[in-house]
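Lab manual, section 2.4: Encoding a predicted structure.

Procedure: take the sequence of the chain (450 residues), apply the prediction step described in section 2.3, and record the output as structure tokens. A sample record is shown.
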Amino acid sequence: MSNEENKIVLTLRKVNYDVNYTTEQCADDVKKFSFVISGDLYRALENEAYFKTKNSFNVVGFRKGKAPLHTIKKIYGDYAFLEDMIDIAVNEVYRAFYNEVIPTLQMAARPDLEYGQCDTEQIAFTFGIVEYPTLSNLTYKGLDVVKVEAEEVTDEMVEAELNKARDKAGYWADVTDRAVVEGDRTVINYSGSIDGVVFEGGTASEQELEIGSHRFIPGFEEQIVGMNVGEERDINVTFPTEYGAEELAGKDAVFHIELLSVKAKVLPEADDEFAKDVSEFDTLEALKESYRAKLVESNAAKAKDTTEKNLIKAVIEATPVTLNEKIVEEAAEARVEEFEEMLSRSGMNFADYERYTGVTREKMIEDYKESSRESEIRSLVLTEIVKAENLQVTPEEMDAKIAELAEKTGKTPEVYKQEMKREEFNGLFNSLLSDKLIDFLLANNNLINA
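Recorded output:
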């Protein structure tokens, strides 16, 4: 497409310079902004580079940092300052560009920098800006959306909740009169070998292992079932082909097992006394009714959540969006960076993670691309709907929600608001805006039964 000429203002040492640039609209939502710096600004940049680097030049007859610009160029050549001039030019121009032009764009990814001709007369470079696509056919009303009904709460569901409570209140007791069964908690010594040679990391003493937890490689726990305390046994296993340690992957191994102790979970009887012990209720029936009420509430929330997901899915699918791959790539990279930060907080780096799992950074980025694409499209479409319908959260709505939250903590709304961090305030605002968007979409689309 044809170039459009514009200008920004760059300030160096309190002097303003007009910087002309051309704009070219390219395919795939990319705009190129091309700059050519010459004349007075070129010379001003040369002076900036001189003041920045003059102490690094050794010139006979001058103390370090005292040699004039023209003397340094005479000795070191006309390009003595060019590299630093280019760095200063790009940084200063981008700073002005960021303030004056970027706010008018829908920038979706980091700019690409390309250099043009840079010599004793000019410095040329281009910023390539990827923008979010314009959604000209935004469709979000009158769509058929499957409404999910809450699952009916059964007696079996209630019993399952009761059994969870019993399991939580249970205790582990030593077993001496029978062999190991599924669900037992064992303590073992083990030593693993391949072709008769004990391998690194394959030996442990007094290792606690709950049978059925699937913490160990397939076939390991299952072969401990049937052992008695004090018994020793050799078991045969095969390491998975995609095991983290490459030297063990796919190998057949023998583990010598010594069973030191066995414990079994003892559960309390489900009766009125149990209800009194674990809740504020006096009878088992009252406790079970409380579980039923919570399940009804939980199932209703799940049905509502699934219906809303169906709604959002229908809206997203109604507006086809093609994203520039650079947007997807950077979104996937950002997720990997978040994962790296999580690893760092746990005392591990990505190199360790890759060694243990065999998953490379490149593989993780590739795996994240599809979900990142979906997330970016979802955010883009929903943001455009909010703009199109001018949906807003008013200060009064924010204050009302803050007052509600403050009441739960026993604080005044004023104190609660003062103690909120910026990210908490922004999170609350976005939550209210999301609720308002969902309510709008529910009111403007057709909920149908499956």
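Check your result against the sample. The two ends are 49 Å apart (CA to CA).
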